[in-house]
Amino acid sequence: MWVADLVAAYATASGRDIRAVDGVTFDVQEGEVLGIVGESGCGKSTLASLLALVPPRSLQMLGGRFGIDDHVISPETSDRIPREWRGKLVALLPQRAMNSLNPTARIGDFAFDVLRAHESRVTRRQAIERARQRLEQLALPPRVLESYPHQLSGGMRQRVVTVISTLLNPKVLIADEPTSALDVSSQKALVLLLQRLLDEGYISRIIFITHDLPLLSNIADRIAVFYAGKIVEIGPTKQIVDEPQHPYTRALISSTLVPEPRVRCQRLEGLPGAPPDLRMPPPGCRFHPRCRYATDICAREEPPLTADGDDRLVACWWANAQRQNVEGGTHESRAAVGLA
Amino acid sequence: MSLAPQSALLEARELTRVFGQGSQAVRAVDRVSFTVQPGEIVSIVGESGSGKSTLARLLLRLLEPTSGQIFLDGQDITKLRGARALRPYWRRVQGVFQDPFAAFNQFYSVGRVLMKTLDLLDGAKLSREERQDRMETVLRNVGLDPVDVLPKWPHQLSGGQLQRVMIARALMVEPAILIADEATSMLDASLRVTILNLLRDLRDRYRMSILFITHDIGQAYYVSDRILVMYRGELVEQGPVETVLGAPQHPYTRQLMADVPRLHGWGAVSMAEPAGAAIGTGSVVAAPSQGAGHAGLA
Lengths: 340, 298
What we know:
By secondary structure, chain A is of the alpha/beta class. Chain A is built from 13 helices and 12 strands. Chain A starts with a strand and ends with a helix. Chain B has 2 domains: 10-246, P-loop containing nucleotide triphosphate hydrolases (Rossmann fold); 248-298, no CATH class.
């Protein structure tokens, strides 16, 4: 799967577009989990709805294109997407998937609905049988098919929805904050389930969207850091977590609260301010009003995504300057760059 | 009847709440006993459905306990019924809740929300200027600009700002103890730290006690002095944070620690491990069935 220079905006009554996704480019290899992390309001869910081919009505794809295998979606074709692509090509696991079940229907009926939407001749019995096999293969209790949603715990509901929405073996699963409403034990169970779906080949790729960086670092192969509709840093998980380059990534990492003694002894500073209003994003780098390293150029010119090493891209003037210092042989600044 | 020890600000004794009857009965809170000292931050952690929020509602007297007692400054307040009788209690004990978008009347400006809190409690005694002063002070205390925020309506504020207004609202009556029920769960990590720092500052500055209810051990670890672990309605472990999380004794606490995602894998990497307990990366293999088991069919 690849995404090239994707631009999408919400039309507003005031006539000023909200560009929630603004020039986004990345790809996801077969068997890979790409994580997307960012604050609320940064455009993560908008991107998810676009890629999952279920954009809200007010969202307009303005530019760029994206493709899955040889299926390409561009602004011209974005309103004529074949129905069967949804679920088969790409499946969405939304934030409140577990609350999207019909409370008066058994889980088995939901499985039947999903399959019937794509295979008109499938019978209820066949559908439930297929769901049962899949659940058994994933070590989940098949008896949930007889249950009503309220009889299952939140974590179990989320796992069951995950399994059934991937019954058609989609090429890409877009998981949009699938763990936010769960407690830690259910979060872990869901992440392990997703990993298993990938390992068994039921799904080929996952785009995992969340604001929870520690959780993401446990599932993603690569992480893209999203800020105000743009990717500010993208690279292998280990590099992002151990040696974050963009000041925003650093702030995200330094404000994670893990139960380790070092966290308790110090006062974490968090990140002052809020993400910008996307109707009038600040000029230059969109992060500069909140950035402690911001200089004149940051307010004037937008930093391009620049390669840092082989696998990583960073969009930051300050990080660029740091890197050049290092290449120039200044050892102190190499230490500074390495600092999380 | 014995009084609670002099130093305890708030005490729950054998507090129990049962929902439903007969075979359907669920003991949501089951014989829970603990104390909160003045100026202490105590966390209650547990998974969803463990009874944390029911406990919060009992302590705020928004829900009647089935049995057990609540003491404030050594006085049994469990018998107090009705809003009028409970006003003095609510002047000392205030709540902050999870969802800032659901907590406000959409038709009230921030100024009116704050003012209303005073009307309910002891507003009658304050002059107009005093009320205005107090509103401005509490807003500054939570890091908001009164001039900017007071005339605004809830929909004009972000989630983080609303959460701060909710804390400001609670502070209007200068409570002795704040009960924060998942007050930071809906916030972004960066903002969460700011709110947790605010709670720490309030404790340091005013010796306010805070009962911090969360499912997030990381937050509990950062903010609290003591921690209570709740599992299926019961308190299964309690003590100073370092002891409980550093060397968890109860299997559930160990499980909880092993399931917390870290930046470098699951589990308790750098914590002291209790003898014989296999927590840390080793438990990852066993975890899916275990997780599925206890979250399981309700």
